[in-house]
Amino acid sequence: MFRTVPQPFQIVALTVLALLAPAACASPDFSALPRTESPNLARVKPPANPRVLNEHMPRDQIEKLPIPQQSPELTAALLDLEKGSIEERIAKLKKKTIADLIYVRGGSFMRGDFAKIAGIGAALTASMDDKVVKEITLSDFWMGKYKITYAEFDVFTDATGRKRTGIEDDGEGRHPLIPAGAYWQEAKDYCQWLGQITGYPFDLPTEAQWEYAARSRGQFFATATDDGNLVYGRNTPKDEQADRISKRHARTSDRRYPVGLFPANPLGLYDMAYLSFEWVNDWYAEDAYEKSSMHDPLGPSTGTEKVIRSWYLGNGQIIGTSIWRKTKKPIPYRMNSRDEYVPVNTYNSPTLRCVVNSAPARQ
What we know:
By secondary structure, this protein is an alpha+beta fold. The protein contains 12 helices and 13 strands. The strands form 5 sheets. A 4-stranded antiparallel sheet has the order 2-5-13-6. Strands 8-9-10 form a 3-stranded antiparallel sheet. Helix 5 packs across helix 7 (150-160).
């Protein structure tokens, strides 16, 4: 929902959207979107037995781990979103958003804990809600290669007259280069607002789309790193290393750091295995896999909690994050010092990435 803002600002925001949004009746020209696939899809195959390497690294080696740097081009593009008029910022965000889309060719895959059918010795998760492994077929879609940052999300909130997220506690959890925290509805609104300014059907990914993309088009990748293993210090950070990186950018305890520092998965998506949970569209139900449609499933029609995917830093990385299901209330709550339930700070809420759908999803 839009928060109340002064009437003059509402008029400006609506005028900006009217000027920049494509005609509502125009059909999306998907031919203008990328369809080139990463060569790593053919080159990198899932490991037969995914492993965690360097987990028990000596402290002196941990202290020597490098501080990876975001590419100068990505840093410049994100910081540039903070400059100029709101019309200029929207135009720059629109251009960057389209440029960052990764084509995900549709197809069929076995969704869920595939350990048994892949010949892996033990289950990949300790959960039971992913043990119904069923073939799912998805249409083509496009997914943003990075989690959405504060630099990007701020363009949306400023353009629509909303309160910025992550501003609690003097903004200690904010930095333009790190993933933005938001409540579920705000995350969905952001993606659909991208649809208004671009003319493409943007939305949050469905849970099936997220897993298919994390697994590089549904292959047996248990974790969404560049090779399907966790190699601390190379394709996933040690907690202490993440602390050092994050303290350069925000005074927050959840170790968020700039997007794109570690290698992408074979499909070309960054930070799918860690760096905070991500919202997806689906309501959570324990039996959702058993009852879902086999074609472009949307998940349950109602519920009390939303599914979140990816993983967070602070408790070590694990194998199985490509399929592990977690949940949160659309507005997460916590108990304060007065034993009252209050919304958690937005900077501690899950983050997001968006997709463009080529066909309406069917239940």
